[in-house]
Amino acid sequence: MDIESLTENLPVTELTSSFIHQDKVSVAMLRADLNDPEISGNKAFKLRYNLLAARERGHQALLSFGGPWSNHLHALAAAGHRYGFRTTGIVRGEQGKTLTACLQDAQRWGMQLHFVSRGDYSLKTDPQWIEWLLSQLGPHHVIPEGGANREGVLGCRHLCSTAHPHTHLLLACGTGTTMAGVITRSSVPVIGIQALKGDGYLQQEITDMLRRYRMQAQCEWQVLDDWHGGGFAKTSPDLEAFMQRFETETGVSLEPVYSAKLMFAIRELISRDYFPAGASLLAIHGGGLQGRRSLPGQG
Ligand SMILES: *Cc1c(COP(=O)(O)O)cnc(C)c1O
Q1: How far is the CA of 163 from the centre of ligand 1 (A)?
Q2: Is the pTM for the entire model greater than 0.85?
Q3: 80 in ligand 1 pocket by Cβ < 6 Å?
Q4: How would DSSP label each residue in 107-134?
Q5: pLDDT 10s digits, 210-256
Q6: Cα gap 177→278, rounded to integer Å
Q7: Is the shortest distance between the CB of 70 and ligand 1 below 6 Å?
Q8: From atom 12 of ligand 1, which residue's Cα is the shortest distance away?
Q9: Which of 24, 54, 68, 210 fits 277 for a cystine, CB–CB 3.0-4.6 Å?
Q10: Rounded to an integer, what distance in angstroms lies between the CA atom of residue 14 and that of residue 30?
Q11: Best mutation site among 173, 224, 225 for ligand 1, i.e. most ligand atoms within 8 A of its Cβ?
Q12: What is the pLDDT of residue 293?
């Protein structure tokens, strides 16, 4: 098994376009999106120790949860296919007439898909419901939605092993698992851009996560909760125009749910003099470019 190699030696791209960068502040991206075309971005980091744990516990099958455009289920299906695990995806919502391109990939990699109502899906962390699922589907190593467990956090610490000099790390947050891992290793301040709506809840959740896993932040860190652009996976003509311009100016592709909102926020924060003069920002590109296919006209 060699998922380790997908989580090491990520390239860094300096963004030199004046669209993003200004005289006083430089911006670079840590390209977790380039680690692997299939087991993409931070999801590879969150799977790293989960796959090892599954092996150690003698499991041949992995089960997890996600929506119809889940980067996590997509990466999990690809990893199972490559490293020899059966995979089961519990998918939020009723099955439509056609599968999303994301779930088509997952199915092609052998993932068994089980669609559950939103009501049932909300039980995704309920131990009794999970036990019932396993009684129906057979034994599996169960990974929470988004890879949000201790193994997930531990894997994300490897995102800090870059030698590229920087004064601030920035990343997009869903469950906050990636941020939790990064702040237990980073020596510079870390700023998270929350992709879901909700004042302050993620700052608290990350604090709780660290306490639960007996880990400690090694740096200043803060989650900014007002850059979600209307809510999780909500796009707007402004955001789409930003993505297009960003890609033309920098040659770096983004996806609408996380990385576009992260880079949008960074550009705005720079223009509001949020960062001190001389700062060199390193933004983590979390990958998941398969999700671009969810945009209108990308089919
Ligand atoms: C899943 C994902 C995130 C969020 O990661 P969390 O660990 O859940 O906070 C950020 N960016 C991309 C591209 C993702 O796929």
Answers
A1: 22
A2: yes
A3: no
A4: HHTTPEEEEE-HHHHTTTT-HHHHHHHH
A5: 999 999 999 999 999 999 999 999 999 999 999 999 999 999 999 99
A6: 29
A7: no
A8: 286
A9: 24
A10: 9
A11: 173
A12: 95
